[in-house]
Specification:
Shape: globular
Number of helices: 11
Largest sheet: 8 strands, mixed
Strand content: 15-25%
Order of helices and strands: EEHEEHHHHHEEHEEHEHHEHE
Distance between the termini: 18 Å
Structural class: alpha/beta
Number of strands: 11
Oligomer: single chain
């Protein structure tokens, strides 16, 4: 399936020695989804791609080669009446109507159709990370865990389930929420390192100067999540893990081991639904992504044993 909005791509360059990592951030991905569009347009095919939360959507859209869906997911789709809101929250469906967003809208002839055939046939593999609310452990899913589109979409949903704002996902006897509660605070650096990668292209959704602050009123969160104390602990300590991961990322950049895309300015927050603001954020992301493409090409090396070209 090819959508009319897909961009034409250059000859494909397969990149096997560099991990591509997408941070989450809700509707801030309106800006970073532009990196998906830019990479696809440039024909840069990373063979190992990881994403958490909204970064999981960027990951699967990238692997399916669908620039149209990458943009629509975080721009126009926010206008869909079933996208979410207070009435859905009051019904227990979440401030974001996750079942619709992830498990219905991606079907054929639905509002946000997912190119399952292209995803399956792509040579790249994925790592989507969720968080087990009961045990406090991360779970890592790859393509082998998703033989059917339903298997994929429920895991993208699980990775994206913001605690308190969306109902947790029950899957195979476990309860999952947003992977940002896990070891790296929302950026899958440790998983890439465990799998042997030493070079990284990392797409962040916060500006370089950003520092996450501790949650206020911890007793309130412990009360809300009293059924899941491991989740409460993870949520209340996430700020520290997140800031430490970013410090590691910028240190890797200084060492020449990472190309870091950090928005020059982030004009939206994780729940923005104003289409004009989301579209403006995407345009900003496109401009910055295209300016950084020459540096990314140089960073990954357009020749050598770890890079191969194909049509």
């Amino acid at each position: 399936m090819t959508n009319a909005g897909q961009v034409a791509t250059a000859e494909t360059t397969r990149i096997e020695d560099t991990a591509l990592i997408f941070e989450g951030g809700g509707m801030r991905a309106s800006l970073t989804s532009a990196m998906v569009v830019a990479l696809l347009g440039a024909g840069l095919s990373f063979e190992w791609v990881a994403g958490i939360s909204a970064g999981a959507s960027n990951t699967v859209n990238y692997l399916s080669g669908d620039a149209w869906r990458a943009r629509r997911s975080f721009v126009e789709f926010a206008a869909d009446e079933q996208f979410g809101g207070l009435r859905y929250f009051a019904r227990g469906q979440g401030m974001f109507n996750a079942e619709y967003i992830y498990q219905k809208a991606g079907g054929p002839n639905e509002a946000l159709p997912f190119d399952w055939d292209s995803f399956q046939s792509s040579t790249g593999d994925m790592r989507i990370i969720g968080f087990n609310a009961e045990s406090g452990d991360d779970v890592v899913w790859s393509k082998k865990d998703t033989p059917h589109i339903d298997d994929l979409m429920v895991r993208v949903r699980a990775s994206s389930t913001m605690p308190g704002l969306m109902p947790p996902v029950h899957l195979n006897g476990h309860v999952y929420v947003d992977g940002a509660m896990g070891e790296d605070g929302g950026i899958a650096l440790s998983q890439a390192q465990r799998e042997g990668f030493e070079k990284f292209v990392i797409v962040l959704t916060q500006e370089r100067t950003y520092r996450k602050a501790p949650q206020r009123f911890p007793a309130v969160y412990r009360g809300i999540f009293r059924k899941y104390p491991a989740l409460a602990d993870a949520l209340l300590t996430r700020w520290k893990r997140y800031n430490e991961t970013r410090e590691q990322i910028f240190a890797l950049e200084e060492e020449g081991k990472a190309h870091v895309f950090a928005p020059e300015r982030m004009p939206v927050d994780n729940s923005t639904r104003d289409l004009s603001r989301l579209a403006a954020a995407h345009r900003m992301g496109l401009s910055q992504s295209r300016r950084e493409l020459p540096e990314i090409r140089e960073f990954v090396g357009m020749s050598g044993s770890a890079v191969s070209s194909s049509r």
